[in-house]
Amino acid sequence: MAKQSISIPVIRRLPRYYRFLRELEQEDVQRISSKELARRMGLSASQIRQDFNCFGGFGQQGYGYRVQELRKVIGEILGVDEQTGMILIGAGNLGKAVAAHVDFKKCGCVLIGIFDDNPLLQGTMTANLPIMPMETLTSFCRQRRPQAAVLCIPKHAAQQLADKLIELGINGFWNFSHYDLRITNPEVTVENVHLGDSLMTLSYCMHRKKEET
Ligand code: NAI
User: Fold this and answer.
1) Residues 24-46: tens digit of each pLDDT
2) How far does residue 91's CA lie from ligand 1's centre (Å)?
3) Distance between CA 194 and CA 178 in Å, rounded?
């Protein structure tokens, strides 16, 4: 099944399905109906059926979904079994927290290098990796060929650095820098992360509930 035939809104829901299915597998649940999965996930059964139909269904009328099989297929689509080499730039408060607390392996990535331009940080360890000076970035990328980068640098530095990283073979950015990168290369993917957006959604929902009561 071609990955590109799945729409982005469905792709955005897949990590959550993957997480729930993995939990079910850990609970030794072998199969589950769309109704039961919907109840656990707070979704509608028709939404789940519609989403899973995008990549072949995997359900049988009156039988439900095979949990392990479905988890594997979704994992394959998401590429969680791949080992995409990643570097992280900007080992400040956020960068260190991301490096230390995000389970990269679980998401199909391996953090192989951390860089920062602050000389005071150089050589110190984060997530079992030494923080390296920016001067070594080019030679590191040529040797180790990371494919993706996490950007945890201030916004004013983001574009210039991203352009350089693309030249060095980076084709995916997990961008925390609060700056919308201008990328013209169609082979490069950017995932912008704004924790504030999630907080604003919470704020909106709370206010709406208050207005309704
Ligand atoms: P910080 O000041 O603690 O860390 C930034 C690090 O980047 C510093 O260690 C600095 O030496 C390094 N740096 C700066 N320019 C660099 C360059 N050109 N090359 C390499 N390293 C460079 O800041 P913090 O709190 O870690 O935040 C980092 C960025 O993340 C900021 O832009 C902040 O606004 C953003 N942020 C984004 C969030 C989100 O939800 N997307 C949440 C929190 C922060």
Assistant:
1) 999 999 999 999 999 999 999 99
2) 7
3) 7
Task: Report how far residue 144's alpha carbon sits from residue 206's, in angstroms, rounded to the nearest whole number.
Answer: 47
Report the SS3 class of residue 151: strand
Q: Which of 134, 163, 178 to mutate to test the pocket of ligand 1 (most atoms within 8 A of CB)?
A: 178
The domains found in the chain, sorted by start residue, are 8-77 (1.10.10.10), 84-197 (3.40.50.720)
Instruction: Check: CB of residue 182 under 8 Å from CB of residue 206.
Output: no
Three-class secondary structure of residue 93 per DSSP: helix
For a pLDDT cut of 70, what percent of the chain falls above it? 95
Atom 9, ligand 1: which residue's CA is nearest? 92
